[in-house]
From TrEMBL:
Species for this entry: Paeniglutamicibacter psychrophenolicus
Region (Disordered): 1-31
Biased segments, Low complexity type: 1-18
Protein name as catalogued: ATP/GTP-binding protein
Amino acid sequence: MARSNRPSRSSTPAARSGRVNKWTRPEATGDDAWLEKARHGVQRLQDAPDGQWHVRRISAGGASKTYKCPGCGRFISPGTEHLVAWRADHWSGDEASAAARRHWHPKCWESRSYRY
């Protein structure tokens, strides 16, 4: 008997087979930390002469906005790999520190000056 490409008419897709595909996959309700890391990069802590910094690499696929690099003053266009940095030891707390985060070109971040 030939196979039909027409879907079967059972009430639930999972009842038809035990396989899970993109149509019968259960909704993501659990811990999706791995998905956030894939979207926004892995955060790491960096020690520098001017304090501790949280640094996260943003992939080209995750870069969807235009930002201005504080190191060189040029714009980071959408689709360009870059990194985000914010202070880990901010005096106002983590919320204020995250609000003050900046997007940098990787070379600008590596060659930034610590002089004040």
